[in-house]
Amino acid sequence: MDRSLAVERVLRGVQPHALLDGLRAALSEHFGAGDVELLMADYSLTELRRVTVLPYTTEPMPVAGTAAGEAFTSQSATFEPGEDGIRANLPVTVRGDRLGVLAVTLPEEPEPPVWAELGRFAEALGHEVFVADRDTDLYVQARRSSRLTLAAEMQWQLLPGRACSRPEFALGGQLEPAYAIYGDCFDWSASARTLAVTLVNGMGEGSSAALLTNLAVNALRNARRAGIPLDAQAELADQAIYAQHRGQEHVATLLLEFDLATGEITAVDAGSPRLWRLRDGKAERVHFDEQLPLGTFEDTLYTAEILQALPGDRFVFVSDGVYNAAGPHGELYGDRELSQAILTTADLPAAHVPSAVLAELHDRRHGGLAADDAMVVCLDWFGSNPSADGESDIASAATGETSV
């Protein structure tokens, strides 16, 4: 049997909690691997943690300044010679969502095709871990440097992922402080023809804010999956929140829908997180007709607006936890600082931008605790991909809308 097929068959056949053990045995048998480790990125994307039977039992590896961390951030393999051979750090990524790094040690330097083969196993492992999360907590626990608050647990379970990419766009999002968030959230979903992006900033604190955000996100998903226009989606979610809280709680929301063929954007601003656009080297705030947050009054009507995305545009969304962040002398992180941060990170991939902006906020506080949670989402718009239209239409007819 072909050894690649043999390894992939092992990955598909083992129990979800035993993925690493199965892969380790298969790589030892077919490639002579001496050591195989899976390092999962933690929620803050600053550490890589080894998958072990029990959580919190090994020292984390920092992303900054390590070969494994470089493989994670650059999304390309890195290599380390050592006494036991050569160690390859291979990105474990699913459709642009970076999960971690597969570290494989071989006794001697192999031919380049072998590294490519191992890289494909890392990708296959990522897909298996993604599915395994439905059946085991092992990989979720490995991502944690400490316990999450209940509110953070609820929020992280809402997210579609922290990054995704297609020929038309690339997305990345991050929440901070990662282990104690409560009101901020983002959501996205792509079909053959559209990309929907939702930014949510629920009022309140703790688990009550997380419950409010859960209601808002699921009400919006329910409306979106019914296939109704964007303004009607906002109205149905508004009614659901008002019915539950009678105007005492509300949710600031920005809804966008991108036409993947034309770049036309339909938007509904319901007291939203802010949107910035980087175009031709200039960062500027995108202003909408700001309407009432969802749940403020009964039977609120919402109006959609239209704008145009051009190939090369970058869109950066931020919640009030970013632009209301206070510096050491009480000064707020204003438009000037945010504009500069967007320009400074212009050369980074979309998946890296949120963490870079949030790291600047952390430095601005000199490591102090944040007064509010913060959300940053970055979207790079590449333009339509005509060659994929036929395949997309076939996939759409077969499966309908797909989350990415």
From TrEMBL:
<dbReference type="InterPro" id="IPR052016">
    <property type="entry name" value="Bact_Sigma-Reg"/>
</dbReference>
<dbReference type="GO" id="GO:0016791">
    <property type="term" value="F:phosphatase activity"/>
</dbReference>
<dbReference type="InterPro" id="IPR036457">
    <property type="entry name" value="PPM-type-like_dom_sf"/>
</dbReference>
<dbReference type="Pfam" id="PF07228">
    <property type="entry name" value="SpoIIE"/>
</dbReference>
<feature type="domain" description="PPM-type phosphatase">
    <location>
        <begin position="166"/>
        <end position="381"/>
    </location>
</feature>
<protein>
    <recommendedName>
        <fullName>PPM-type phosphatase domain-containing protein</fullName>
    </recommendedName>
</protein>
<keyword id="KW-0378">Hydrolase</keyword>
<dbReference type="InterPro" id="IPR001932">
    <property type="entry name" value="PPM-type_phosphatase-like_dom"/>
</dbReference>
